[in-house]
Amino acid sequence: xxxxxxxxxxxxxxxxxxxxxxxxxxxxxxxxxxxxxxxxxxxxxxxxxxxxxxxxxxxxxxxxxxxxxxxxxxxxxxxxxxxxxxxxxxxxxxxxxxxxxxxxxxxxxxxxxxxxxxxxxxxxxxxxxxxxxxxxxxxxxxxxxxxxxxxxxxxxxxxxxxxxxxxxxxxxxxxxxxxxxxxxxxxxxxxxxxxxxxxxxxxxxxxxxxxxxxxxxxxxxxxxxxxxxxxxxxxxxxxxxxxxxxxxxxxxxxxxxxxxxxxxxxxxxxxxxxxxxxxxxxxxxxxxxxxxxxxxxxxxxxxxxxxxxxxxxxxxxxxxxxxxxxxxxxxxxxxxxxxxxxxxxxxxxxxxxxxxxxxxxxxxxxxxxxxxxxxxxxxxxxxxxxxxxxxxxxxxxxxxxxxxxxxx
Length: 408
Known about the structure:
Blueprint: E1 3-10, E2 16-22, H1 26-35, E3 38-45, H2 54-59, H3 70-82, H4 87-97, H5 101-114, H6 120-125, H7 133-145, H8 148-205, H9 211-245, H10 248-258, H11 262-285, H12 290-298, H13 304-318, H14 323-328, H15 335-347, H16 350-407
Antiparallel strand pairs: 1-2, 1-3
Helix pairs in contact: 3-4, 3-8, 4-5, 7-8, 8-9, 8-11, 8-16, 9-16, 11-12, 11-16, 12-13, 15-16
């Protein structure tokens, strides 16, 4: 008879226990452990790797799920949990009732693992493209403490705020992008359609063209004949840069370069601190220790240079320093926000203080982004109108000079 080694938790307990159980199959082993009141975290067959039965292989997901399914899944699940269903029954019901194919397939894959006795957090951990480590750890903490409903609600709030911020960012960039596209289209139309015809007309009339007109025509010829090669070269350079940035050294170096650009640095640091404080608040609110929450949160920061700085701050916190003092040495957060954080540490309200800081950063980042996009839109309009004005000046001066030569 096969013997299985298991890691499990008793209902309502956070500590895990290990042991062995003899059973004819994986399903029987899971049933025996469930009868004992244990929630199985891991089940291995002695003498081999993790057992994958025929049922497991049939239930294994055949699709590659993406992170965009995370928030819709949590929102659908929390509605069922709030109505009184367990998380497992909620996932089973979603796997049957949902109509969206990708989300339905994800729920079916999760239910296949839950049906074998796994916990929801373990089932979710098998889909890292959808559920990151932070989400899995918070779900596991909610299962262990019986606060899964509250954990789901906080996760939904966190991911909803992140989605709204991304949408606001894209919406803010939409107008200047449209202005750039429109201005570029107008310039190209004038250079490639109007200027050649103007040159043909003026050339047929004879006479020497004014300097402004010669400059306009020469620029049009340069862009017409040299522009495609420049565009191809720029495209190759961008492609090679992106390939280089995918390497660890390239990512580290390019992230460091971003922090040296005056305007870009402010956006990068503010976005990193916003993500850091908001995620840290969510983890601490759900019972994760400060040290573990810091380790999880620093990985959520996109810029590797800022991530290394926060990693050093986490090390100092683990060594016994306060969070406020550790972050102060990073020079990423202004003193006023650090004072607010220090008060939160002293009063035991660290998570609310972090949320207040995150909200302040979000308001300031949105304001900066709006001001920058207004400035960019104005600059593009100014350049476009200036070129149109120069084009009109070149045409008018050429016509005056040609007409003057006819009178002579």
